[in-house]
Amino acid sequence: MRLLKAIAGNAKATVGALLLLAFIVFALVPGLFARDDPTAQTYPRNLGASGAHLLGTTGLGQDTFAQAVYGTRQVLEIAFGAGLASTLLAALIGVAAAYLGGWADAALSLFTDVVLVIPLFPLLIVIAAYVHNSGTGVLIAVLTFTGWSYTARQLRSQALALRSRDFLAAARVRGERASYIIAVEILPTMSSLLVAALLTNALYDVLFASSLQFIGLGDPNSTSWGTMLYWAQNNEALQTGYYLQAIVPGAAIALLGAGFALLNYAFDEIGNPALRPVRGRRRLALPRRPRQEELSRA
Predict the structure, then answer these.
(1) pTM to 2 decimal places
(2) Does 249 reside within a domain?
(3) How far is residue 163's CA from residue 169's CA, in Å, rounded to a whole number?
(4) Strand, helix or coil at 267?
(5) What is the pLDDT of residues 31-49, one digit of tens each?
(6) 218 lies in which domain range?
(7) What letter does residue 221 receive in the DSSP assignment?
(8) What is the distance between the alpha carbons of residues 215 and 233, in angstroms, rounded to a whole number?
(9) Would you say 278 and 14 are in contact if contact means Cβ atoms under 8 Å apart?
């Protein structure tokens, strides 16, 4: 309830939550909004927007609106699947390195730094090229493997600041194991940072996955916004004037990214009062300077 009140009291959080909720509803029950089969190539090609086809048809004779609605599910699966997996992996590696210290910290930090300095998008292209026409699970695995290192560095820095706290010393005195201290004592205190990391990772996973599908390294037969852009490019939609085929999936990606970004900014403001906008701040009352008439009378 406190989280819902915090979201309702923050304009950015409210807009972001509504955007994300709308996409989740599209992903869960797409049949309520799109009556056409997104993979059926049974309609005339390159139709404009009309009552029968709200956003027209593609160059393959598929309903554009149905593809956009049904494609939401795969995008959200990648966003939350890869985002959650990379955040958990980063939390385990980063917090374990900070708490254990010594050779474990050195080894885990070295591994993190090696992954961190590798150019991310070229690495994604190389990996995706070896698993060409890959499905959702492979994309999630690839994005998880390449997307955890930056978050791990952030969480390690935060965990280093907590390592000398009294509640951790008390847990060590009680004889608790390192795994228990990391999972039960440290990670819950970093919940706001973990939520921010999850939202950031989910945003970048959507962008990277759509980019890979756009350049043809995903499964071109799947229904997703990235594959919609891929087929729009192949059919030269922008060059031939069929703009909706490219604008619709691009706008969907932008709106979902805006939802994640607004929620991320909002959680930063909720967790850090110094970042909240100042509202209704009253000016300080300054002493009134005496007028010239009052001075002359005195």
Answers:
(1) 0.81
(2) yes
(3) 8
(4) helix
(5) 899 888 888 888 888 888 8
(6) 2-277
(7) T
(8) 9
(9) no
What is the CATH number for 87?
1.10.3720.10
DSSP lists the bridge partners of residue 27 as none
For residue 215, tell me if it sits in a domain: yes
Residue with tokens 């090229």: 129
- Please state the domain count of the chain: 1
Q: How far apart are CA 235 and CA 242, in angstroms?
A: 9
Give domain status of residue 54, yes or no: yes
* Count of helix runs (H) and strand runs (E) in the chain: 13, 0
Look at the block and give the residue holding tokens 């010239």.
292
- DSSP 8-state code for residue 134: B
Average pLDDT, the chain: 82
Burial status of residue 86 (CB atoms within 10 A of its CB: 0-12, 13-18, 19 or more): buried
CA 204, CA 86: separation in Å to the nearest integer?
11
Which amino acid is it at 35?
R
In a domain, 96, yes or no: yes
Cα distances from 276 to residues 53, 59, 229, in angstroms, run 44, 48, 38
Q: Considering only CA atoms, which of 58, 62, 76, 83 is closest in space to residue 199?
A: 83
- Determine the Cα–Cα distance for residues 142 and 154; give it in Å rounded to an integer: 21
